[in-house]
Amino acid sequence: MSVKFIAIGNRIMGDDTIGIKVAEELSEKLINEKIEVVFGETDFEYALSKIDDGDLIFIIDSTYFELIPGTVTFTSINDLSLGNNLTSQHQPSLIHLIKLYGKNIKGFVIGIEIDKIEFSTELSETLKRKLNQICEDVYVFIMNNKNI
To answer: Which residue from 37, 54, 63, 84 has the highest number of Cβ atoms inside 10 Å of its Cβ?
Structure first.
């Protein structure tokens, strides 16, 4: 079993890049923990090709659940089905492809609540201010769940 951290997002859509920014910040620490970091961005076929049966994966992406911007949510992949929770700006979603191809994996979707999506290569001021805390929350979660 391999542990993989997969960052999803679009680098030119403002807060949609939050998963990639977190992966960039945590990359060295995760690699030191023997966790492979995959920058899937909007290429779900590439990200899917990096997932093997038996893997434990942590997928990080932006969310819009009408929560406070910067809120970090954690959802087990087993709790997601093809019928719900699969709305994505990036169609089809990576979760949809994992389910569709019957990948036998365990893992979590780590969502970071956005402030705004717009054409920009920068995060919103809200997420910039919260980036360090978001990274810490994500890292602690991964360390607490990397051996399930």
So the answer is: 63
Inform me whether the pLDDT recorded for 113 exceeds 70: yes
Reported pTM: 0.90
> Does residue 147 contact residue 4 with C-beta atoms inside 8 Å?
no
Using DSSP, state whether 84 is helix, strand or coil: strand
Question: Domains of the chain by range and CATH?
Answer: 3-145 (3.40.50.1450)
Strands 106-113 and 72-76: antiparallel
- For 34, left (φ over 0), alpha (ψ -120 to 50), or beta? left
For the segment 46-83, what is each residue's pLDDT rounded down to a tens digit?
A: 999 999 999 999 999 999 999 999 999 999 998 876 55
Q: Are strands 106-113 and 3-8 parallel, antiparallel or unpaired?
A: unpaired
Contacts of 13 (CB under 8 A, 6+ apart): 89, 117, 118, 119, 120
